[in-house]
Amino acid sequence: MSEDAPTVLLVAPATSYRIEAFVRAAARIGVTMVIATDVPAASGSFGLPVHRVSFTDAEASLAALGAVRFDGVVAVDERSAWLAARFAEAGVVRGAFHSASGVLAARDKRKMRAALLAAGVSVPRFAVLAAGAQVHALGVELPGVVKPSMLSGSQWVIRANDATELDHAAARTRAILARHDSPLCAEPGFFELLLESYVDGEEVAVEGLMRAGELELLAVFDKPDPLCGPYFEETLYIAPSRKSREVVASVVATAVAAARALGLCDGPIHAELRVGERGPVLIEIAARSIGGLCSRALSHLVGSLEERLLRGAAGLPLEPLRREPPAIGVMMIPVPRSGVLCAVSGVEEACRVPGVDAVTMTVAVGESVRTLPEGNSYFGFVFAHASEPGAVEQALREAHAALRFSLTPLLPLVN
Predict the structure, then answer these.
(1) Does the residue 261 lie in any domain?
(2) 354-397 tens-digit pLDDT
(3) Structural domain includes residue 130
(4) Range(s) of the domain holding residue 141
């Protein structure tokens, strides 16, 4: 790389699967990359400068970087996004990034709901349940949803239709949190729960990049499988959305309003909304790109998402989005029951389904999996593209039907 190549700081936990993808993307576009991570030895094989940082101690992390300055910064998840935001605000990074307060609000559902409600963004009615407090004292409208305040994903989220179910859901979620090993468990309010009204309607996801408060829309995904509870396991993401142009425009406008209200104005966002009688209702918004391996589905739209993120951070020209992209989709292969994976079959058959690009298994034989709400993993991912969304959905469902999993039972969890 040339000496005048822009330098971008990649902030990522050592366990992130995306570090290698960013390293390859940086090499392709001529960006000099430096890695900031919690376990530097894990990234030593990439042959790049590595700094040890702490995802809970910004001051120590700033000291670890010393006098080094970067043209831009990218992050891979909520924890690294907060640290990246602190670096940007401290002047370590010349380019802009989301505000640190906005990243914190996005990962804390209590702060998120309050900020969005104050800004006039449509959100579910909600109440905060302090650790040890009784659920019935809040007078929550039912059906309702119980969820942790600081953890993301569908794990730990439970629907309750009556007072008995609400008590049970709160107790179960508290039991899960009590044994959770999240680094956020030391944060004030980690053990508080969010109780919110259940929003009836179809769910969609908005994927995009904010730049100076303006959205570059990458995709609006439909989630064709009903997410009605009692748990909310995501499976299918299909784009473009098959909803009307007016509904899609309203969904995107709501996501942008939420991002601006929180201060997520320079970086990736991933928003999830319900579309019902009230119009779009913002359920979640995160200061990161789409999770898991799902970003690979975007390759038919934007090429490499990692390249686009690096270009944006470094201030390099962006490749235009494809004018007539195909319909795309990904299936997060659900876990039907808890157990230890003994065998997988049907992968080759699934790969032969017309339209399927790849079947990627992420759980190895011998590893254990759990169903929701305790579980937090999928067997893997199926990727597909076709000329229209219906054909993508059909290909993903046919591929999933070809897969077979053999599991042995797990010992029960002890609360």
Answers:
(1) no
(2) 999 999 999 999 999 999 888 888 999 999 999 999 999 999 99
(3) yes
(4) 125-197
214 is a domain residue: no
Percent of the chain with pLDDT over 70: 96
Q: How many structural domains compose the chain?
A: 3
Pairing of strands 380-386, 202-211: unpaired
For residue range 134-164, what is the model confidence (pLDDT) as tens digits?
Answer: 776 566 788 999 999 887 766 689 999 998 9
List, as one string, the DSSP characters of 342-358.
EEEE-HHHHHTSTTEEE
CA–CA distance, 20 with 292 (Å, rounded to integer): 14
Q: Which of 173, 197, 221 is the last residue of a domain?
A: 197
**Burial of 226: CB neighbours in 10 Å, binned 0-12, 13-18, 19+:** exposed
Beta strand pairing call for 7-11 and 72-75: parallel
Side chain identity at residue 355, one-letter code: G
Q: Give one DSSP letter per residue of 63-110, joined into a string.
A: HHHTT--BSEEEESSHHHHHHHHHHHHTTSBSS----HHHHHHHH-HH
Residue 205 is encoded by which pair of tokens? Answer: 């996801």
Task: Say if residue 175 is in the same domain as residue 89.
Answer: no
Q: Cβ atoms within 10 A of the Cβ of 339, count? A: 17
Looking up tokens 């120590």 gives: 60
Residue (of 102, 103, 58) closest to 77 by Cα position: 103
Inter-CA distances, 286 with 20, 109, 324, 332, 346, Å: 22, 10, 28, 19, 35
Residues 6+ positions from 46 with CB-CB distance below 8 Å = 19, 20, 23, 35
Cis preceding-peptide flag for 188 (omega within 30 of 0): no
Measured torsion, CA atoms of residues 24, 25, 29, 33, in degrees rounded to the nearest 10: -80
Phi first, then psi, for residue 196 (nearest 5°) are -135, 160
Whether the upstream peptide bond of residue 230 has omega within 30° of 0, thus cis, is yes
User: Pick from 162, 197, 232: which residue ends a domain?
Assistant: 197
Sheet holding 72-75, edge to edge: 50-52, 32-37, 7-11, 72-75
Query: Residue length, the chain?
Result: 415
Q: Are residues 99 and 166 in the same domain?
A: no
Is residue 64 located within the same domain as residue 144? Answer: no
